[in-house]
Amino acid sequence: MGSYMGQQEHVISDGMYNYKHHHAGGADIHVIFVKKSKFRVVLSYIGTMLLLATVCCTLLSKDSLCLGSLWSISFASIIAKCLQCDPVKKESLVIMPTFGVQLEQHFWSGRVHRKFVPISKILKPVLNEHVTPVACYWSLALLLREEYELMLVFKNLNPPVKMLVPIWKALCAFVGSNTPGNSALPQST
């Protein structure tokens, strides 16, 4: 537990993710950060430099362009495009009493995507379990009025269930749908 401008702060760290919960200006803020690996950053820079060198060598070679060099340039451009993706730095949920919920996605490039959901539109928050042959994932979603699909709270991240449960409980308290006694609440280990 720490302090954030005189308010209580709750922090959970697990593997790739950090979870912070604090109150600021009357809002209840839940943030999940992605831990950025320095190794991955260095590897992406080295990969970009190697691809740039490959393209330059191919273009500057004295031989005429052949099928091999065209393949090399196209492969390098595809890899460069993949490295140029805009990964998520953090996703947050801001609960604003009497107004609604704001979902935010912050990208490493500095771009921010925000979506506001008014309280009148939220029916219930839902914890979903996704089972695959290899792993089990949990997601937090909002069941909305007049919508046929669930709205995922964290669209790009798959945080562990022990980070999702406090957020789910806060959303249940906010919406007024108190946790039902027969609900299957996942046990965190």
UniProtKB/TrEMBL annotation:
Residues 92-155 form the Phosphatidylinositol N-acetylglucosaminyltransferase subunit H conserved domain. GO terms for cellular component: glycosylphosphatidylinositol-N-acetylglucosaminyltransferase (GPI-GnT) complex. One of its GO terms (biological process) is GPI anchor biosynthetic process. The chain crosses the membrane at residues 42-61. This is Phosphatidylinositol N-acetylglucosaminyltransferase subunit H conserved domain-containing protein. It comes from the Eukaryota. It comes from Sorghum bicolor (Sorghum). Pfam families: PIG-H. Keywords: Membrane, Transmembrane, Transmembrane helix. The keyword Mitochondrion does not apply.
